[in-house]
Write a structure and sequence with these properties.
- Helices cover 31% and strands 26% of the residues.
- By secondary structure, it is an alpha+beta fold.
- The chain has one domain.
- The N and C termini lie far apart (87 Å).
């Protein structure tokens, strides 16, 4: 009987003992911005490190920031040639993408859109959608890389871009392939 009473007292004592409260995440956890403090580079699909992701990892291209980077350039080709060693934005080259998307939606694609497309192809994971709206044209883009592959020695990606016009009346979908050439240049293949 005495052993039963002692066991009961032990169980009640353990049940009433204070438990440690959940603590804040440790400093190395994502909630504390560990990556920004200790690894400020974003590694692209092909292994290149980029100082900024312009919101791509979170799924939304920051067109204002991309536009500021490209500000002084005249088109994507000039922007892609500036500062070859540490160019801050990946860019889609070629008039084919502008012509295809322009024909589909009826509005011209600008250098910020090309930069968002290029940086999305560089940093977004497969089936990770990146969204942005061109403030000038009002067109909303949703680019989703769908497959990675090699064409010779070039890294390539298939992708789908959904377009919604400013008035929301015209929606279209463009499927494309772009291959990486050089240091952040994505060339649209027809």
């Amino acid at each position: 009987m005495k052993a039963t009473r002692l066991a009961l007292i032990a169980v009640v004592s353990v049940a009433l003992a204070p438990l440690p409260a959940p603590a804040e995440p440790p400093p190395h956890a994502k909630a504390h911005g560990w990556r920004k403090k200790n690894d400020p580079n974003y590694v692209g699909y092909t292994g290149k490190k980029w100082a900024k992701d312009y919101g791509i990892i979170a799924g939304k291209c920051n067109t204002a920031a991309v536009g500021a980077v490209l500000g002084g350039t005249v088109g994507a080709v000039v922007g892609s040639r500036a500062n070859k060693e540490d160019r801050p934005v990946a860019i889609v080259l070629g008039t084919a993408i502008g012509a295809v998307i322009g024909a589909k939606i009826g509005e011209a694609i600008d250098q910020s859109d090309r930069a968002c497309m290029g940086h999305s192809l560089e940093l977004a994971g497969v089936k990770k959608t990146v969204v942005w709206t061109n403030n000038t044209t009002g067109v909303t883009y949703r680019l989703t890389p769908t497959r990675d592959f090699k064409q010779g020695d070039q890294a390539c990606r298939e992708f789908v871009t959904e377009l919604n016009s400013a008035k929301g009346k015209k929606k279209d979908k463009v499927t494309g392939v772009a291959c990486r050439r050089g240091n952040g240049e994505w060339v649209f293949k027809t």
